[in-house]
Amino acid sequence: MFIYQATYSRYHSRKFNIKIHLRKRILTKKIIFGALLLLTAVFGWSFLPSSPGKMTLIDQQYRQYSTTCPALINVKSTAPTDALNSTFSLLNWNIYKQQHQQWSKKLNEWANQADLITLQEAKYDQDLIHFSQQQKLSYYQNIAFNYQKQNYGVNTFSRVQAQQACGTRYSEPWTLVPKTGIATTYAFKDTTQSLLLVNLHGVNFTFTAEPLKEQVAPYIQLIEQHQGPIIISGDFNTWSEARTKEIIGTLVKAGFNETQFSKDQRLTILGLPLDHIFFRDLEMINAKSIATIASDHTPQLVTFSLLTKN
């Protein structure tokens, strides 16, 4: 009888604790939502960032595209289309809206070593446009939101013109501020192969990994139909085990390797890095994770080479 009572007591105590935990989660959600409503009521909608009516890609010629991945659109260019060398380098960096003073100096320094650049939290302003002109880079910006007359989102730069492009926009479930992604393709010299490059800023403020899974889904469809090398780069906001397992597990299953760094300087939360570079059908030659105070995130600079055919 005593054993039964003790077991029954433990069962109900555990059940009670689960109920308390669930109530706390629901209360937290209500507090977040209530705070957003209160701020909106007090300050009006101008307090919150606004977003374009549809997914909007902009290139260096100020042309706009609204093709959503996994569909790719052939992009026209007034400049001569070049092609990547078989060995090339990629810089990935969450630039923190260019809020730190050293961002321009450091970005130019690292850009000199890169053929492709994937930025997250990029503010699309004259300084960033000037950077692209200085470095003679083509680019695509996918606008996530506009705040105080400035556009923010992900930006992919390249020393060669892209052949195709598409983008995605996925709203944060609670803040409703979107996160964006870009996919672009590039030709290689002396081969019919092309590179698919994905630049993604992962949704952040979620209680489960499901929204992140949904955000990545169009790119999974895209990589299934691409014949050739692929790089998936960005800030995935993998601050929990569930989110990390979702991203790494999905991409490893699809045949990707994750770039590893001998001296890892990447920003971590709860011991988990947020920024990742995954690759398939490429050889990694060199990988550097670079310490800096020019953003809250640190950049990664990786050199790849096409696989040699036996």
Describe this structure in words.
With 310 residues, the chain is of the alpha+beta class. 29% of the residues lie in helices and 33% in strands. It has helices at 2-43, 103-111, 126-135, 210-225, 241-253; strands spanning 57-59, 64-65, 73-74, 87-94, 116-124, 138-147, 150-158, 164-171, 178-187, 194-201, 230-235, 257-258, 268-269, 272-273, 275-280, 282-289, 300-306.
- SSE string, helix = H, strand = E? HEEEEHEHEEEEEHEHEEEEEE
User: What overall form do the CA principal axes indicate?
Assistant: globular
Total count of domains: 2
Percentage of residues in DSSP E strands: 25-35%
Could you give the count of β-strands? 17
List key phrases describing it.
17 strands; seven-stranded mixed beta sheet; alpha+beta; Deoxyribonuclease I, Chain A; single chain; 310 residues
Short description:
By secondary structure, this protein is an alpha+beta fold. It contains five helices and 17 strands. It starts with a helix and ends with a strand.
Topology overview:
Blueprint: H1 2-43, E1 57-59, E2 64-65, E3 73-74, E4 87-94, H2 103-111, E5 116-124, H3 126-135, E6 138-147, E7 150-158, E8 164-171, E9 178-187, E10 194-201, H4 210-225, E11 230-235, H5 241-253, E12 257-258, E13 268-269, E14 272-273, E15 275-280, E16 282-289, E17 300-306
Parallel strand pairs: 4-5, 10-11
Antiparallel strand pairs: 1-2, 1-6, 3-8, 4-17, 5-7, 6-7, 8-9, 9-10, 11-15, 12-15, 13-14, 16-17
